[in-house]
Amino acid sequence: MNTFRFECKKIRKKKTTWLAFFITLIGIIGFYLFHLSAAENVRQQNIAWKDYLSQMFASNAETAALDKKKAEEAGDMEKAEEFHNMMVSFQKSSENAKQDKEYFANEDWAHLIERELRNLEAFKEDPNISSYAIEDQLISVFTLRATLEERQRLQKYGIAPFIQNTTGTNYLPTIYDDFSGITLEEWEKMTKRYGRFGFYFLYQLIQLFFLPIIVLIGVFLFGNGISSEAGKKKKGLHFYATLPFSKERLFFAKYASGLLYTLGFTFIMILTPLVISLFFKGLGSLKYPVLVYDGSEPNPYGSQYNALDPEKDTFHFIELQDYFLKVLFFSIILVIFLYSFYFLLSLFIKNPGINIILLGSMTFVGMKFFPKAYNPFTYMDIHKIITREIATIQFNPSIEYQTGIILLFVISLIITFISYWLFTHRMRLS
C-alpha cells in the first residue's frame, strides 16, 4: 500500500500533468459558454423572425384595408369583400406572429409545443398520408412519428426543449431522413439542436465522442507509470531494482495508481458541464425523452435486400436519467479498457506520444470502419449503441449495450493479465 501511495504522490507532483488537466477543464468550460452563446443567438433570431412576420402581416393588412376602401368607392362590393377577408386574415396572422414572438421571448414552451402539435394534427389523424416536406422533398414518416411522440412527452411532463433554428415544428432528425442537395443543408440547419441546460449539453457532448476523447487524454496523462521511467533519461524503475520489492507489488502500484487518476479525471470532466451550468441556465430535466430505435430485422434472403421501413419500423423513448446511468457505467468500463490497452503498449514502446497515437488511431479506425458485434471499438460511440443506431443501420441486433459492456470488460481482463505476465516475467528493472 505504501508503494501505491508513493506512485500516486509522484503523479500529483507532475506540473505538466496539472497544466494539461486545467487546459482540458478550461476547454470544456469555454465550449459550453460558446454553445450557450450560439443557442441564445438562435433564439434571438427566432424572435426577430416572428417580429418581422408580425410587421409584414400588419403592413399587408393595411394595404388590404386601403384596397378595400378603393373598391367600395368604385362600387365593386365583391372586390371589397375579398379585400376585407384578406385584411382579416393578415390581421390574424400578425397577431399570431406577435403572440409567438412573446412566447419565444418569455420561453413559454408550453404554448409553442401546443402549436407544434396542432401543426402535426393532420399526420396524427392519418399517419399513412404525409404532406410534410422541406422544399420539394418529403419528411420521412418515421421522423414525423418520432417527432410527434417526442413533443407529446415534452407537453405531458412540462419539459423545456432544445433550441432549434426554426419557428415552426422542431423536428427530431432520425436516420430515416433521406434528403439531398440544398434541402439537406436546410434540414440540417433547422434540426440542429442547442442544449443550454447542463444535462442537455452533456447529452450532446456524448454524441460528439466526448467520452473516448476524454479517456484518451486521461490515459495519456496518467498511464505512463512504466514508459516515463524506463527511458534512457529517467531511471525510475532502476530505483525499485535496488529495493526489496516484488514485481507483483510494483505492477499493482503502477497500474492501479494510473487507473485511479484516469477514472477521477474522466468523471471530473463529465461533471464539469453540469457544475458550470448551475451558474447560467441550470441543469434541465432528466425526464427528457431520448429516441431509441427498435430496428429492422435482417432480410432472410440476404443482406443485399435489407432495407429500413419508415412506416413499419418501431421505436421507443427512454428518459435522460436512464441514458446517463448507462453512460456512467459504460464510462468505467471504457476507462479500464483503454487504460489497460495503453498500459500494455507502454511495456513495448517507451514513447508516450507514439503510444497515444497508436491507441487513438486504433480506436477511431475500429469505430468508424469495422462496426461488428465483437469488435470492441464498435462500442466507443456509446450514444449510437444506447440508441441502437448502429445496430439498426447495420441490421445487426447483436450490437447492443450489454454485449459491449461484457466484451470490453473481458478483453480488459485479458489485456491486464498479459501486461501483468510480461511485467513480472519478461521485463527487467535494472
TrEMBL record:
The chain crosses the membrane at residues 16-34, 200-223, 259-280, 323-345, 352-370, 405-423. The keyword Transport does not apply. It comes from the Bacteria. Keywords: Membrane, Transmembrane, Transmembrane helix. The keyword Signal does not apply. PANTHER family: INTEGRAL MEMBRANE PROTEIN-RELATED (PTHR37305), MEMBRANE PROTEIN (PTHR37305:SF1). This is ABC transporter permease.
